[in-house]
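Recap from last week: sequence in, structure out.
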Amino acid sequence: MAMLLISGKFKVEGGAKPDGDTLPFIPDNVADWKLVPGGQIVPKADGRGTVRLEAVDALETHYGERDKEQHQPRGLAHAAADALLKFLDFKTVLRDDDETVATSPDSVPGWILTRGADAYGRCVAFVGKGTGPVYSGYWTEVGENLLKRTANHHLLLSGLAYPTFYSGLPEYLRDLLAEASEKARAEGKGVWAVDRTVFGATVTTMDSITHDKTGAVILPKLFRRLKDYLDFTGSPASMACFRAFLAGIADDEYRLLPDTERLFKGLHHIVEVTDGTVKMTRPAREIIFNEK
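Predicted structure tokens:
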């Protein structure tokens, strides 16, 4: 698959809150944002836009409205964020209690490979460091060798993020990324040493999924839905109505591997609740979400 390459710099200065799958990027030529399919990216005054890493989902360091913001267990969440920044050649990473990050240096050269923006105006991309493989503003084929130069592949191979696939990503790239993630899972790296997504997590309070030492490590998409549910019901809460809550939202459209013909709407089709234990019946690598 051909993707648009844009060269520029990743810039993290005081006040920024990058996590393990999003970070700020400024093209060398700010007009290159207009080349991104979809035309939804509106840069800041300095040319900065937000890049959301393609095909990966790292644990949440901050999710929700400011007065109700929550995080997943921060050890692995910070490990993913730090691994992303250090892969891109930021030498030091300092983080305040509110997740504000400062780095040294405050910017590094790099490049992105993108096929478009998401519904939130973020550029969805593979990201790499240094000099790109082609001139900025050109389209280039993304094969195995180039994919392995990206932070996306690195995070999955390190086990510090979950694979999260959308329908526009070609099968051969999805397979390569799933293979990297499976290798990490087989070796018990990162999240895979403690993941409870398909094994089940007992959830009664917000601490059940946020506490740094005892909180269950689960797929971030499931965490976000549980957090929204607990905000709605109050904590502590019974999980008895969680699937009904998911059915009421029904904002996730997806197909499942290997039976990819049927289109499902809502995570309630692949979530089970038994005596307060919540689990997904399919691992992340077998789910292909439809792009909105």
